[in-house]
UniProtKB/TrEMBL annotation:
Gene3D superfamilies the record matches: Galactose-binding domain-like, Glycosidases
Domain of life, source organism: Bacteria
Positions of the Glycoside hydrolase family 2 catalytic domain: 291-445
Protein name (database record): Beta-galactosidase
Source species: Deinococcus maricopensis (strain DSM 21211 / LMG 22137 / NRRL B-23946 / LB-34)
UniProt cross-references to SUPFAM superfamilies, sorted A to Z: (Trans)glycosidases (SSF51445), beta-Galactosidase/glucuronidase domain (SSF49303), Galactose-binding domain-like (SSF49785)
Domain Glycosyl hydrolases family 2 sugar binding: 18-137
Keywords tagged on the record: Glycosidase, Hydrolase
Family to which this protein belongs: Belongs to the glycosyl hydrolase 2 family.
Coiled coil regions, renumbered to chain: none
């Protein structure tokens, strides 16, 4: 199976993978800058090695030191010739946690703040003419800086409650690309289902000279949908592409992207100087819409019940980094195999290669920011800047259908009484909607709802009866919104009156198996064995699926993660119950979307027809 490019939405045929062995050093006294560790001779003397992109806290890194080390250094020598034909050499970083500085041959070429978002360094001018160059990276990640967007990385020496061992430094791919002097830098795809059009905003790295043109070719399963060439009159090139598509089906199932039909449009873009190609990149897009209207979540204009699972996407041997590119595919496939149609990535901006597989496999995603734990001007500025980069990076992925900038009032300790904190929540909602008006936004998921398109509720009640009493009907929901505090917090603030938001139970369950003596444990309830776990899961799901008002759920959680033992599978991704049994429960029709019962009947009839046809053919 083909491994996706580290940046699947803008690929080039030729790139150099820089993952692997690097020199490595701790700088606990923070003397490296003063002593010039960024100079090649000093960097070559780093005393350790590390396997990039695995964080030094992880076993896979070869370092496996989980104690506090706020500053780390990396170095690698490259055999790389400086281009003489006007080409540029770009050094790409998927993510470095948290502040990164990069030198090439002692020259500072990039600085970036934000542990989950990518950055690029043009290193052309810094390369040595003899073909040997040294890249040095300094990463600063203060484990006790609570204003830093850190998600579930613990600020204490050992993990406690629901927090995990840290991920410091490089944890996503590092690679090199040679590009022409004028090249494509970013692409933004926006589908218009009503007009069967795809809008493109392409950005170049610089203003092109006269005569430069952009050719855009779109295809679906080999059939050409559009082929347009236009003048590139500036750095920003915008074009609307009507899709030449015909279908026998009015629903256009063979064009639109959905979990059952994850159709992806292949894009090939060529920057031309006259007839000569300057730059060529690959990309893709999905024709789909996602919105909330009149209390329903709509995908491609039709109501859809969200069946999601909470995923930390954390691995014992590699932490936030994936063990391999294929592990990201396996994680997405696991969610599908268990009968879920979506995944909520929790307190982590996930590797774009995971989103690529969600696009390919048809798995819906809620994108969530890693939150800070303090409310200060610095914390607001840093989270807002990194969140802006995350939304921009992932805008093109059709699988991503909602944004969650804040979870459970994390970093907002006085949200109920502090006007500034409430203004911050509203500001993040409106900022996200401004950056991306095409997706719903859940401003603060879990409780203390102020504004948003989805009213997400976290309720770890351990009986189906309790869930029915609280969310079974519109009347029950209204009582719960006005009086029930599932986790000692009000569900609505400021006397909020519902205005068409979809209501979803976005965290519930969290059930663990009875731990062995001395085994780490964290969960919201405990059962004795796998049969009891399946029974309790079915009890809770049955109550949710019978609700008149809930438009979706998100079960806590997919995998055991460190001391959190409440996964449906172990940390090694071994199922605790039979996957087919979970799938059968998860795919039952939901009362709040009556059309689902018709789909079940339709699919059953289709399967029976296929079986009869196959039997007749064999006879």
């Amino acid at each position: 199976m083909t491994t996706p490019h580290p940046r699947p939405q803008l690929t080039r045929a030729h790139w150099m993978d820089l993952c692997g062995t690097w020199a490595f050093a701790y700088d606990d006294d923070d003397v490296g800058l003063d002593e010039g560790w960024f100079q090649p001779d000093a960097a070559r003397a780093f005393p350790r090695t590390i396997q990039v992109p695995f964080p030094p806290e992880s076993p896979a890194s070869g370092v496996h030191d989980r104690s506090f080390h706020p500053v780390v250094w990396y170095a690698r020598t490259l055999d790389l010739t400086r281009p003489t034909d006007g080409e540029r050499v770009l050094l790409q970083f998927g993510a470095v946690d948290y502040r990164a500085s990069v030198w090439v041959n002692g020259q500072l070429v990039a600085q970036h703040q934000g542990g989950h978002t990518p950055f690029t360094a043009d290193i052309t001018a810094a390369l040595n003419s003899d073909g040997v160059s040294t890249v040095v990276v300094r990463a600063e990640d203060d484990p006790q800086d609570l204003a830093q967007p850190r998600g579930k990385q613990d600020w204490q020496p050992e993990p406690h409650a629901i927090w995990y061992h840290r991920t410091t430094g490089i944890w996503q791919p590092v690679w090199l690309e040679r590009v022409p002097h004028t090249h494509l830098q970013a692409l933004r795809w926006t589908p218009d289902l009503d007009r069967t059009e795809l809008r493109l905003h392409a950005r170049l790295n610089r203003t092109p000279r006269p005569g430069v043109r952009l050719r855009v070719r779109l295809s679906l399963r080999g059939a050409t949908l559009a082929d347009v060439t236009l003048d590139a009159l500036g750095r920003d090139v915008r074009v609307t592409l009507p899709l030449h598509f015909t279908s026998m089906y009015p629903e256009r199932h063979d064009l639109l992207w959905s979990p059952t039909h994850p159709n992806l449009i292949d894009a090939h873009l060529t920057l031309l100087d006259g007839d000569a190609p300057l730059d060529e990149v690959g990309s893709y897009a999905g024709m789909r819409s996602a919105e909330v209207r009149a209390g329903q979540f709509l995908l491609n204009g039709a109501p859809l019940f969200l069946r999601m699972v909470l995923a930390q996407n954390y691995w014992p041997d590699t932490h936030l980094a994936a063990p391999s590119p294929d592990a990201l595919r396996q994680e997405a496939q696991l969610v599908k195999d268990l009968g879920f149609n979506g995944v909520r990535i929790h307190q982590k901006v996930e590797d774009p290669r995971f989103l690529y597989w969600c696009d390919q496999l048809g798995l819906l995603v809620w994108g969530e920011m890693a939150n800070a734990y303090a409310f200060t001007e610095d914390a607001q500025t840093r989270l807002t800047a990194e969140w802006t980069e995350a939304v921009t990076r992932d805008y093109n992925h059709p699988s991503l259908i909602a944004w969650v900038p804040l979870n459970e009032s994390w970093g907002l300790p006085n949200l109920e009484r502090d006007p500034a904190q409430r203004a911050y929540v509203r500001a993040l909602y409106h900022l996200t909607r401004a950056l991306d008006p095409t997706r719903p936004v859940i401003a603060n998921d879990g409780w203390q709802f102020i504004t948003g398109d989805v009213l997400g509720i976290h309720d770890y009640a351990l009986s189906g009866h309790a869930l029915r009493e609280r969310y079974g009907t519109h009347e029950a929901l209204q009582r719960s919104l006005s009086s029930v505090q599932p986790y000692f917090r009000r569900l609505l603030l400021d006397g909020h009156i519902r205005d068409g938001e979809a209501v979803m139970l976005t965290e519930f369950g969290g059930i663990s198996l009875q731990p062995a003596e001395g085994e780490q444990w964290w969960g919201y309830g405990t059962v004795q064995d796998s049969a009891a776990l399946l029974g309790k899961y079915e009890e809770l799901l049955s109550a949710i699926l019978a609700s008149d008002v809930l438009m979706g759920f998100c079960y806590t959680q997919l995998t055991d993660t460190e001391q959190e033992s409440n996964g449906l599978v172990t940390a090694a991704r071994i199922p605790k119950v039979e996957p087919s049994a979970l799938r059968a429960i998860n795919t039952r029709p939901a009362r709040s979307v009556p059309g689902e019962e018709l789909l079940v009947i339709h699919h059953a009839a289709h399967d029976a027809l296929v079986e009869r046809t196959s039997r007749t053919t064999l006879e």
